[in-house]
């Protein structure tokens, strides 16, 4: 396709089990002016043959197979660097998009030229494509960067699905600056989203247009937002997450807020772990 406006970047590794469904979900979008760049991270299953088959029948697909496995992080960076479009989104090989997902996002962008990011509400599906959890609404993350919005995000529990904001549609010129803050630490996707909220005016469509797959056979999930469950993390996981949150926001005006809330949460977690340790003795 000539002059597509959007790049969909799909990094994939051994995705044959769900790849067909994901590709059909993207290629049947009502908004059609996009390119789909698939970077196959040297898969050893049928991923290559599936991608080549789709690429032969749809010229919007650019399929690239890496000669060696470059790691997940580099593969996500790779598809972004290959994009030459104004807008960009990452796509996992096992997720499902409503066929109006991109159209809805682009309609929102057309109404507000200041936006840097658009997404929607979502729910989780299991490996049988069955809904098992509706993620709490992301609408609270709409708007210009503000201390209130950042505080909400920082104190929202990690298990509430806020990592999934990563899969929204970005204005690419705003996204390039953020990629250098990619890391392999636990929670890096949540810190990436944190930076998105710090740097961009954002909008969340109040519709469920995206289904995120959990690779486990889960039938039901519930949550109770109490202090113990909210902090059901290991210190070894939270520490690098905490440090990276400070690094990625250091040059923003929200750094003092991030420092205060994340330090508070780190201390809170330490105290809870100590309490539970001595309580169980």
List keywords for this structure.
single chain; 9-stranded mixed sheet; about 280 residues; about 40% helix
Brief sketch in words of this structure:
This protein has 281 residues and is α/β, with parallel strands linked by helices.
Please give a structural write-up.
- This protein is of the alpha/beta class and 281 residues long.
- Helix 1 packs parallel to helix 2 (47-57) and helix 5 packs parallel to helix 10 (255-279).
- It has helices spanning 16-27, 47-57, 72-81, 101-111, 147-155, 172-175, 188-199, 227-230, 235-249, 255-279, and strands at 6-12, 34-40, 61-65, 87-90, 96-97, 115-125, 131-134, 169-171, 201-213.
Could you tell me how far the N terminus lies from the C terminus, measured between alpha carbons in angstroms? 66 Å
Low-confidence regions: none
Largest sheet entry: 9 strands, mixed
Query: In sequence order, what are the helices and strands, one letter per element?
Result: EHEHEHEEHEEHEHHEHHH
Helix content: 40-55%
Number of strands: 9
Mean pLDDT reading: 91
What is the CA-based Rg, rounded? 19 Å
Strand content: 15-25%
Number of helices in the DSSP assignment: 10
- Silhouette: globular
Oligomer state equals single chain
Tell me the structural class: alpha/beta
């Amino acid at each position: 396709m000539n002059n597509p406006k959007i790049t969909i970047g799909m990094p994939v590794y051994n995705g044959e089990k769900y790849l067909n469904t994901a590709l059909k979900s993207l290629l049947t979008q009502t908004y059609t002016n996009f390119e789909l760049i698939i970077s196959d991270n040297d898969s050893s299953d049928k991923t290559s043959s599936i991608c080549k088959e789709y690429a032969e029948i749809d010229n919007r697909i650019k399929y690239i197979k890496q000669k060696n496995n470059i790691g997940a992080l580099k593969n996500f960076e790779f598809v972004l660097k290959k994009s030459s479009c104004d807008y960009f989104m990452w796509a996992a090989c096992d997720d499902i998009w409503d066929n109006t997902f991109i159209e809805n996002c682009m309609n929102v962008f057309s109404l507000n030229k200041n936006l840097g990011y658009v997404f929607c509400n979502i729910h989780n599906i299991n490996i049988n494509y069955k809904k098992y959890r509706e993620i709490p609404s992301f609408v609270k993350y709409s708007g210009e960067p503000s201390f209130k919005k950042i505080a909400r995000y920082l104190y929202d529990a990690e298990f509430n699905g806020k990592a999934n904001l990563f899969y929204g549609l970005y204005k690419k010129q705003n996204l390039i600056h953020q990629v250098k803050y990619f890391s392999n630490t636990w929670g890096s996707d949540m810190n990436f989203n944190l930076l998105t909220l710090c740097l961009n005016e954002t909008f969340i469509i109040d519709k469920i247009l995206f289904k995120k797959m959990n690779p486990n056979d889960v039938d039901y999930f519930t949550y109770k937002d109490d202090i113990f469950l909210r902090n059901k993390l290991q210190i070894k996981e939270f520490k690098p997450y905490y440090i990276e949150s400070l690094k990625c926001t250091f040059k923003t005006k929200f750094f003092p807020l991030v420092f205060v809330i994340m330090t508070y949460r780190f201390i809170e977690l330490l105290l809870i772990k100590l309490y539970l340790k001595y309580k169980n003795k």
